[in-house]
Amino acid sequence: MPAGTITLTNNSSTVSGNVTAFATELSANDFLVAVVGGVTYTLGVKSVESATSLTLITAYGGPTTSGLAWTALPNQALVGITAQVAADVAKAIRGLNLDKANWQQIYTGTGNVTVTLPDGTTYTGPAWNGITATLAGKAAKGVNNDITSLTGLTTALSVAQGGTGAITASAAWTALLNGRTVANARGDLGLATSSAANFAALELSSGTPYIDFHYASSASDYSVRLINDGATKLSLIAGQFDSSGGYTSRIGTNGGIDTAVPWNFFWNYNNAVQLGMFVGTGFIGYVTTNSASDKGWKKDINYLSEISDKANSDALNEVLQWKVATFKYKARGIIPESAEKLGFIANDLVNTSPACVTGQGLPDDYDIEADPNNPNAYNLDQIAIIAKLTQAVQAQHQMITSQNETVTDLQKRISVLEGAGA
CB of 217 within 8 A of CB of 5? Predict the structure, then answer.
C-alpha cells in the first residue's frame, strides 16, 4: 500500500495527497484505486503535477472523502491482464473448434470414427450412423416401434410386466392405486397436507423459464412473475422485491462478499423526503445525488439580496460565528469509529444558521448504544451551507468594492492637496 492518504472531491478531477509520493508511485495513464463507502473506484491518471497532486482523466463521481488509503495500479499490469485474458479465450476457442470437429464426425460419420480428446489422446468408436445401421431390423428385446397390435394375449400384463393386471379402465385404476389414498399420493410427491411442496432442488428449462405467483388464489394470469428473460437476467414482473435481511456487499462483480454487514435503503426515512441508507441496523445517513435545480421544478422563488439589503451582510455575520472543528464519529452498532474528520457541529450551526440544519436534535442524555438509530439527529444541509457562504462572499465583495471607492476618492483628495501646497 503506497504511503500517505488522499482526498477525493465529487465532480473534481484533482486529487490531493497527504504525505504521498505521486511523482514516484504513478505516471500518466496509470490507475489510482480507492475504496469509498464500500465502493471500489478505479480512476485513470491524466497527469502527475507533484508528490501531493495529480489530475484524473475523468472527474471523480463519488462522495467527497478525505483520509483515504489508496493503491497504485500501473498501466503495464492492465496490459498483462488483457494478454492473459486473450490467451485464455484463444484456448477456449481451440477447444470449441475441436469439439465441433469431433461432434461432426459422430453425427455424420459412418462405421468407426476417431475423435481427439482434450488431453491430446484419441478414441475410436462407432458413429451414430453406424450404430443405427447395426440396430436396424433388431427387435428381439427392448422398445419396438414396428409392433402395431397385440391380438394373441389372453391374460393382462401385470404391473411388474409393465401393465395393470386388468382389462378395464376402472379395474386398472383400482389395481394401480392398490388401496392408496390422496394423502398417500401427496406424500409420494413430497407434498405435505397443505399446499407447500418440498424439493431438494428445482430446475426450469425453456426459452424463458418463469414462476408465476397467484396472491390470494387470484384467477389472473399472475400476481407476480419471476422470469429468466435473458442469458444472465432474472426479472421480477408486476411486483416489488423486499429483502428483510438486507443486501450483501460485493467488491466489483466477482469480488468477495461481506455477508456479515448487510445494507438496505429506506425512502423518506424520518419524513426527510430523501433516500436513507442503513448498514446492518445502523442508519448512516441520506444518499446525496446531483438534484435537478431547474426553475421549472420550483415555486415561491425569492432572491434574498433583492428582498433585503441586509440579507448578505446578515449571512456574513452568521458565517463569522461558525466554528470549524475536527472530530470522530462514535462507533454505532456494526459501524466502527471513524477516522478524524474536519467540518462543523450541527448543534453549533442550529443556533446561528438554523436554515443550514435539519432534524430536531438528540437529547442531552442521549445514549448511542441504547438508541443507535434515533431519527431526530441533526443533519447539515450542504446546499444551504453553500448558499450562506455565497451570501457571505457577496457581502465581503460589496464591502471591498465600497472601501476601494473610498480609498480612490481619498487618493484624489491627497493629490489635490499636494498640488495646492506646491
Answer: no
* Cα dihedral sign, 22-27-28-33: negative
At residue 82, the 3 state secondary structure works out as helix
**How far is 278 from 284, CA to CA, in rounded Å?**
6
Relative to beta strand 247-250, strand 257-267 is antiparallel
Q: State the residue for C-alpha cell 483515504.
A: 68
The per-residue pLDDT for range 305-357, each reduced to its tens digit, is 777 778 888 889 999 999 999 999 998 877 788 899 999 999 999 999 999 99
Angle, helices 75-108 vs 128-135, to 10°: value is 20
Distances (CA, A) of 421 to 51, 215, 368, 408, 409: 59, 102, 76, 20, 19
Question: What one-character DSSP code corresponds to residue 224?
Answer: E
Which residues 6+ apart lie within 8 Å of 395 measured at CB?
312, 313, 315, 316
Q: What angle (nearest 5°) sits at the alpha carbon of residue 194, between those of residues 189 and 197?
A: 40
User: Do 164 and 174 contact (CB within 8 A), yes or no?
Assistant: no
In angstroms, the Cα distances linking 102 to 92, 97, 106 are 15, 9, 6
Cell of 102: 469431433
Max Cα-Cα span within the chain:
150
Q: Find out whether 4 and 43 touch, Cβ atoms under 8 Å.
A: no
pTM passes above 0.70 = no
- Which one, of 11, 20, 71, 67, lies nearest residue 42 by Cα? 71
Rounded to 10 degrees, what is the CA torsion of 43, 48, 50, 53? -30
Residues 263-289 pLDDT 10s: 787 777 767 677 877 777 777 777 766
Cα–Cα distance list, 109 to 19, 104, 123 (Å): 72, 8, 14
